[in-house]
Amino acid sequence: MSTGIKNLVRTLDSVDFLKMDRRTFMKALGAMGAAAFLNTYQADMVKALEEFPETKLLWIHGSECTGCSESVLNAGNPDLVQALQKLNINLAFHETLCAQQGIWNDGKLVNNAELNSEILQEEIYKEGKYILVVEGSIPNGPDGSGRYLVIGNKPFKQTLGEAAKNAVAVVAVGSCAAYGGITSADSDVAKDTDYRGVAFAKDDSSKGMLKELGIDKPVINIPGCPAHPDWVLLTVGAVILGKIKIPDDLDTLLDEYGRPKVFFPPDHVVHDNCPRRGYYDRGEFDEEIGGPGCLWKLGCKAPYAHADCAIRKWNGSVSMCTQAGGPCIACVEPGFPDTSRPLFVEREDIGVAGTNIDTIAKVAVGAAAVAAGVHAVRRMGKGE
Ligand code: SF4
Ligand code: SF4
């Protein structure tokens, strides 16, 4: 490690990374690389953990594909087992990982918490003091009953309410839990199913399911389809280590859609650091998947995707969507997927998260004006 980086590491050692301004955060990531950066904080966390009591994690699943759990199982910095051990987390309940099953006999729960997941869940609710992680959206339909998703003889809407009441913190993992995600996409049945996120329905915080249930609890949203494992584990870790004080710190740490700004910076989009950005700036756009150029014409929505994917990267910091040749679909935005549709088709007229894509694209094009070529000229020429 060079002396410059060593000095930077020393400086960062005393800093709470979730409270860093974006410039420092980006500088640190750029200088050290995401893996080294995270390792630095991993060591920091380990130190703090020695005197750390066990924290229970209750992880419940609504309507989803379990992709976010899968993503977290693939975590690398730290991996899930390291995180559980080092953060002293007791993963007390995770529907797809726990061995128990719900067992009913003549309409009554039988056996005990070691065998019956429903009893286990109820015991955890009673004990309280757990962090609640919600994966998946929550149907409100039909007619407000929530019965489009019933687990263990109970609408999931009710399960969420019971689980949220005694939680010390609520983290909505993935775009479905955060905003409704794929399940809330426009369709002929969307009004009937009425899928909601925990604290938002798309970008509307007045329609979140907790509000519907009359429960006033702050929620941290970690969107993504799926959510990046670092976003999940570092957020849960920061809550456990008291680096995020709930609710006091949330106003400053989260953006208007409940996302930690450090991972979803309001003034940074995936496009800013895309490995293909040079092609965009030179106006070299691919017309077919599989080429080396910019994917804008193939429907890349990265110019309005607020996330650090291009810096942090995925799969152990190896690659990310556009690097691997797939146009970004802005899966972290509250309006996803409708605001990204049609996928893989160039769109120039959609508004996302309170900002017009044209405005953002124009700024991006403006910044690259010298080299942006035909693309920029055409867009500006349209008076957008
Ligand atoms: S439009 Fe997409 S592929 Fe092109 S530079 Fe931006 S992020 Fe990369
Ligand atoms: S690059 Fe875009 S589509 Fe891929 S994970 Fe990040 S925000 Fe989602």
Describe the structure.
By secondary structure, the protein is α/β, with parallel strands linked by helices. The protein folds into 2 domains: 53-253, 3-Layer(aba) Sandwich (Rossmann fold), CATH 3.40.50; 270-381, Cytochrome-c3 hydrogenase, C-terminal domain (Cytochrome-c3 Hydrogenase, Chain A, domain 2), CATH 4.10.480. Helices cover 35% and strands 12% of the residues. The chain has helices spanning 3-13, 22-32, 34-49, 67-73, 80-86, 117-127, 156-165, 174-179, 190-193, 209-212, 229-240, 250-253, 277-281, 309-312, 357-367, 369-372, 374-381; strands at residues 55-61, 89-94, 104-105, 108-109, 130-135, 138-139, 150-151, 154-155, 167-173, 195-196, 219-222, 351-352, 355-356. The strands form 5 sheets. It has a 5-stranded parallel beta sheet with strand order 2-1-5-9-11, sandwiched between helices. Strands 3-4 form a two-stranded antiparallel ribbon. Strands 6-10 form a two-stranded antiparallel ribbon. The longest helix has 16 residues, at 34-49. Residues 224, 270, 302, 305, 307, 309, 320-321, 328-332 line the site of one iron/sulfur cluster.
Element string (H = helix, E = strand) = HHHEHHEEEHEEEEHEHHEHEHHHHEEHHH
Discrete helix count: 17
The main sheet orders its strands as: 2-1-5-9-11
Bound molecules: iron/sulfur cluster
Our Rg estimate from Cα atoms comes to: 22 Å
The portion of residues assigned to helices is 25-40%
Query: What do the pLDDT scores average to?
Result: 83
End-to-end Cα distance: 47 Å
Q: What CATH first level of the largest domain would be assigned?
A: Alpha Beta
The appropriate CATH architecture of the largest domain is 3-Layer(aba) Sandwich
